[in-house]
Amino acid sequence: MNINTLSNAVPDYESVKMAVALYPNNMRKDKDKKTTYHARTMYRSKLNMENIANDILATSALKGYSKEQILEVSRVVNNAIIDRVLNGVVVETELGSYSARVIGRFDSNRSDFNSEKHHVDVFFRSGKKVKELASKIKPRIAQGNIVIPQLITYHDVLSGGDEILTPGGFFEITGKNLCVTGDDPEVGLYFVNTEDESKTVKLEESLLGNNTQGKLAFVVPQLESGTYVLKLVTLCNKIKPRKELLEYLDTKELKVN
């Protein structure tokens, strides 16, 4: 997709690399009692604003601007939006609208806000322009309607938490279609640093203590402090090995203190 998709440039929809996998609706059947499927996006990576700034520089969309200037403008605009939203204003942008809501149950119409029961969250709703562009995309159904991994529970044994990675400690994941196997050198479990991909660490298949469809267990490698997401690269399949590598990027963020 051209970086100028939301500007006046003509989008190149033929170059879209979005792919989805089809996952069974185990609780839903069609009228003929056949299993139906829903699509789940196969995320290729996770980027931050610095990555986007580099994209803008690469396409010369903002001539004369440095990366630092682009990031500063982004920071100022974001702070202005946050200020308005948290003061009870709905802010509409080209991407969509932002609004704040109070989450939690109140006992009566005279109850006060209680930070132990309630919290404020910010919601985003995509705008008309984004929806119109998205409606023209035709994602690729990846590798013959595959069933992709589903990570359900996370457990860091030393901390007892589900959002922490303790280097040198033991970590367990349960789910479905998790196995990380295959004779391709790319196969492995990757710890992808969300701020700096150069800090990404790969755990070889041989270092996974438990490596089945339902569970992964391993000793956490020596990761630098930061936030990580997990990526599975495998040739594993329920029936027979895949011919092409499956790359699955999880969206849950795990922190290394």
Task: Explain how this protein is built.
- 14% of the residues lie in helices and 33% in strands.
- The chain has 3 helices and 15 strands.
- The strands form 4 sheets. Strands 9, 10, 13, 14 and 15 form a 5-stranded antiparallel sheet that branches. Strands 7-8-12-11 form a 4-stranded antiparallel sheet, with no helix packed on it. It has a 3-stranded mixed sheet with strand order 2-1-6, with no helix packed on it.
- Helix 1 packs across helix 2.
- Spans of at least 5 consecutive residues whose pLDDT stays below 50 are 1-8
N-to-C order of helices and strands = EEHHEEEHEEEEEEEEEE
Average per-residue pLDDT, rounded, comes to: 86
Helix residue percentage: 10-25%
For the sheet with most strands, the description reads:
5 strands, antiparallel
Shape: globular
Briefly note the structural class of the backbone.
alpha+beta
Report the β-strand fraction as a percent range.
Answer: 25-35%
Radius of gyration: 22 Å
